[in-house]
């Protein structure tokens, strides 16, 4: 298994800008990490009525848009945000901008009947304007747990009037998730590897503490976050890298591209003081994945955590 997938050159500047906004959206989040609790159907916290089959849907959030395509409801899409980049066909949908800086005029120009979005979409006044225009708006809470993925599947099922298909998808994903958790639990290393996640897409590199999507993924795979004692992200300093001495460094593919690739990354002198540097000849200690897959809590999460567990913990 190749745990460091080949870097892909970004198509254009606008796509890089869109991805940068996705990374920035990962900075906000709670520390909750769910294991595998199946939500009841329909979710008890939701009161939104099912949609009609002839929806004109706007989807805001890459993970939600993935679910739209997974349910075969992409023909209902009239717009998506700039973080909706997977599958490739999602990149061809009309874009309404970044999900945190929406324009009511731009959204309403698409004549939507329904909008489904992650709870960090806004500003709130824009969403209120859509509700006033009788657009059905459903916001999905973001908490970096498995239940977040389940909520996305349920919400899109309601928004697209594909509730039967979404039940089947949720059942399939739940099976995959439990299989991944069992596979991970069956292997108990004497010392879980310490993983440092670096966010580097614009400006200075940042490292992840608790309460982030990256921290949740690190824990899901049976590893330990090399950094503790703070929430969110902090600037990466040479002193912090040397003190943490991670066994493995995890980045997004786009972040590693922004740093120039593996060779320039390892050329920074502070890495020579780390366990990751010392082990890099015997195992892969610089691992990267596509940002939406890694941080977006999408339907690909069960496969992602199993793959990373094999590459990070069992390597």
Q: How would you concisely characterize the structure shown here?
A:
The protein is α/β, with parallel strands linked by helices and 315 residues long.
Molecular structure report:
- With 315 residues, the chain is of the alpha/beta class.
- The protein folds into two domains: 57-184, Rossmann fold; 189-313, Nitrogenase molybdenum iron protein domain (Rossmann fold).
- It contains 13 helices and ten strands.
- Strands 5, 6, 7, 8, 9 and 10 form a six-stranded mixed sheet that branches.
- Strand 1, helix 2 (62-70) and strand 2 form a beta-alpha-beta unit.
- Mean pLDDT is 87; it is low at 1-20, 22-38 and 41-51.
Class from helix and strand fractions: alpha/beta
Proportion of residues in β-strands:
5-15%
CATH architecture of the largest domain: 3-Layer(aba) Sandwich
Name of the CATH class of the largest domain: Alpha Beta
Helix content: 25-40%
The N- and C-terminal alpha carbons lie at a distance of 10 Å
Average pLDDT level: 87
- The sequence of SSEs as H and E is HEHEHEHEHHEEHEEHEHHHEHH
Number of domains: 2
Provide a count of the helices. 13
What is the CATH fold-level name of the largest domain? Rossmann fold
CATH superfamily of the largest domain: Nitrogenase molybdenum iron protein domain
Spans of at least 5 consecutive residues whose pLDDT stays below 50 are: 1-20, 22-38, 41-51
Query: Outline, from the CA principal axes?
Result: globular
* Biggest sheet architecture: 6 strands, mixed
SSE map:
Layout: H1 13-25, E1 57-60, H2 62-70, E2 77-80, H3 104-108, E3 114-118, H4 124-132, E4 136-140, H5 146-160, H6 163-185, E5 194-199, E6 206-208, H7 213-220, E7 224-225, E8 233-235, H8 238-244, E9 248-252, H9 253-258, H10 262-266, H11 275-279, E10 286-289, H12 291-295, H13 301-313
Parallel strand pairs: 1-2, 1-3, 3-4, 5-7, 5-9, 9-10
Antiparallel strand pairs: 5-6, 6-8
């Amino acid at each position: 298994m190749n745990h460091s997938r080949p870097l892909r050159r970004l198509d254009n500047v606008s796509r890089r800008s869109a991805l940068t906004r996705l990374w920035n959206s990962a900075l906000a989040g709670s520390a909750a990490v769910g294991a595998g609790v199946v939500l009841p159907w329909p979710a008890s916290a939701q009161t939104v009525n099912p949609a009609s089959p002839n929806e004109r849907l706007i989807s805001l959030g890459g993970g939600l848009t993935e679910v739209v395509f997974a349910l075969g409801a992409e023909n209902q899409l009239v717009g998506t945000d700039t973080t909706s980049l997977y599958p490739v066909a999602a990149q061809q949908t009309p874009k309404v901008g970044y999900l945190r800086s929406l324009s009511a005029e731009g959204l309403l120009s698409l004549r939507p009947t329904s909008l489904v979005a992650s709870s960090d979409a806004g500003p709130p006044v824009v969403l209120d304007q859509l509700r006033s225009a009788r657009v059905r708006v459903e916001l999905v809470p973001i908490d970096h747990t498995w239940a977040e993925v389940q909520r996305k599947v349920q919400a899109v099922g309601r928004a697209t009037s594909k509730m039967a298909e979404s039940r089947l998808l949720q059942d399939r994903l739940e099976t995959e998730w439990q299989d991944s958790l069992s596979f991970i639990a069956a292997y108990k290393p004497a010392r879980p590897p310490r993983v440092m996640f670096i966010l580097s897409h614009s400006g200075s590199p940042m490292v992840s503490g608790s309460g982030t999507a990256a921290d949740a993924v690190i824990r899901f795979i049976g590893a330990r976050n090399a950094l503790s004692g703070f929430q969110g992200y902090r600037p990466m300093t040479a002193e912090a890298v040397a003190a943490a001495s991670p066994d493995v460094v995890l980045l997004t593919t786009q972040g590693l591209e922004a740093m120039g690739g593996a060779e320039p990354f390892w050329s920074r002198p502070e890495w020579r003081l780390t366990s990751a540097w010392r082990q890099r000849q015997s195992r892969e200690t610089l691992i990267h994945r596509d940002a939406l897959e890694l941080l977006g809590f999408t339907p690909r999460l069960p496969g992602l955590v199993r793959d990373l567990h094999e590459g990070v913990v069992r390597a």
